Backbone:
């Protein structure tokens, strides 16, 4: 009934329960330290990959919680986000400012999706 | 299986999946820039309206995540919140400080409810 | 269909809906003002207790949202967290910095679990 994707000693990349998947807060990997746009694209590509592994995709997003280290970069983040989400299939969303665990990260995104 | 309320190009006001609804982080509209109490009442009225559209109400709240731009205003927020929630039908809740996307917003609330 | 654990006038300690439980953001009680490690242990013990009351346990955690008032204490928090979670049964997780409602609190954790 619970299936974990990449379960680690500290957290799992994602956890599936019934017909819903909860992803961890994803942060940039290759794009860490680069522009907010590049970091956003990096994070969204990772989310795509995990959703794909779970047999779902971005059209089934339920909610997204977005943390930016500088809320004034929301426009730059949105420019990448808007091109990524599917019209009429967008999730509920909140975006707030928060300092993140590594100084090279400008964004962290935590989503839930339906399977 | 997924129903979206006011789906926009960036996010939806709310997303229904099975018997649960996830609302976006709601921010003040008419009360933006006014007192924390007024902004809280504004946000809660918007939440009421979306829950009503979905055929549910505040007695079925499951969880709430509240962001305040100044955590020391939590007492003022609570004075409005306490009058709004229904005794014995209160949600799980967390309240933390975070800078929000527009300087005229003092509060953002993201909730989930059962249908 | 909705069962609330310790429902109060402001929030409930936890809310059960179908086979999922949402806990409030838990903060330190006895360990408030002490080390981040002590506060983390305090919060996790409270989470254990609520999960137990609901008939579940930490092996069924789905997601965790962790707020630290100082993100540079994440290592100290993780040292306690890592010993608490069960290998291969870890939740999805996000950890960000946020100021909390009382200055003696260094950490707040909000989790969801399956029943």
Residues:
């Amino acid at each position: 009934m619970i299936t974990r994707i990449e379960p680690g000693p500290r957290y799992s990349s994602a956890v599936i329960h019934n017909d819903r998947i909860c992803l961890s807060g994803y942060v940039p990997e290759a794009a860490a330290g680069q522009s907010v746009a590049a970091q956003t694209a990096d994070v969204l590509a990772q989310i795509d990959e995990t959703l794909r592994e779970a047999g779902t995709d971005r059209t089934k997003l339920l909610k997204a919680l977005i943390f930016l280290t500088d809320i004034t970069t929301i426009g730059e983040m949105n420019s990448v986000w808007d091109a990524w989400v599917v019209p009429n299939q967008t999730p509920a969303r909140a975006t707030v400012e928060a300092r993140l665990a590594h100084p090279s990260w400008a964004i962290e995104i935590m989503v839930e999706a339906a399977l």
Chain C has one domain: 2-114.
